[in-house]
Amino acid sequence: MTEEKIRNVLSGINEPVLNLDFVKLGFVKEISLNGKNLKLTLGISDRNEEITAELIKKIKEEFHRSIPEINNVEVNFVTGVTEQINEKKSSVLPGVKNTIAVASGKGGVGKSTVAVNLAVALAKAGARVGLIDADIYGPSIPLMFGVKEKPKVMQVGDKNKLVPIEKFGVKIMSIGFLMEESTAVVWRGPMASSALKQFMSDVVWGELDYLLFDMPPGTGDIQLTLSQTIPLTGAVIVTTPQEISLADARKGYIMFQKVNVPTIGIVENMSYYLNQDGSREYIFGKDGGKKMCEEFKVKLLGEIPINTTIRKGGDDGRPIVTGEVVPEEAEIFIHIAGELIKEINLMNVNASDSSDIVIEI
Ligand SMILES: Nc1ncnc2c1ncn2[C@@H]1O[C@H](COP(=O)(O)OP(=O)(O)OP(=O)(O)O)[C@@H](O)[C@H]1O
Ligand SMILES: [Mg+2]
Question: Cβ-count burial of 185 within 10 angstroms (0-12 exposed, 13-18 middle, 19+ buried)?
């Protein structure tokens, strides 16, 4: 029995979210045949148990029908990551499959909190993840990751490059690693933009599935620099439910639209406070994020409550999604990471000509 025969069967089975077959998507990660026992590892966009259980059933049926000599099929799933297809995909970050700006119009709505927890959650899902602190004037990443060390310098060709710090499975880079803690950055705009560009070109990122950017608030220089330096896969916009934040989030959405960056989805942060009796208190109003999603026809990736655990995780340098056992509110970030993987895969597949798509992890 040949591997080709096995691949042929898999090319007749579609990945449930993307509706393209596993072979075409490059989602066949491992085929191992031991006598009459077949073990498969497949990439998948949504590891929801209901979806995987049904798929396993279907795969077993297909193999039983097509190659009856195989007695037993064991299927394992890993996160399937597709690559952004873009002819303008720059040489700046050649090993990076997808780049995502975590942005908002307004300050203090939780961009950094969301970026940090999403990055760790994506890494926990098995993806290779990097995070750039694009908030040059007010970097939060060193504190939120609890990192004080300075990055090492490495010679690559005739250039000195910085090696990102690795923590909780994420490669991170921040101007905060390079300055003294008490020093304020007092650069002019072009210098900040140039620092951000260097974080892309002069850091040894290697191969990454997702590179996230924790953006500063507003719609200024840094946002423009980023969208002009690389063709971003998309933006995740963070907002609180209240009108003052939504008004700025809308501006953020429109700015990204103007520079051809699609908004992948919206995260509503500080959505509610969970009282001890289980009831929800909508401190900043209700459903603002949902309404914005309806207005712009984008996906609401999730609603995050306001609570002490999340705030403390940020201040203590231990994002709440780290560790084996995660608190209940961390599940929401993990869910958002799952939604993000799915949405990006859908975007990438829809953007490519599906007849000749070949996406390798
Ligand atoms: N869901 C939440 N529950 C409790 N505290 C939160 C939550 N989200 C964010 N915070 C806290 O609110 C503060 C601001 O959050 P954060 O720094 O993530 O916002 P930001 O949008 O990145 O701000 P900036 O615009 O200054 O970059 C932080 O102290 C953070 O710990
Ligand atoms: Mg921030």
Answer: middle
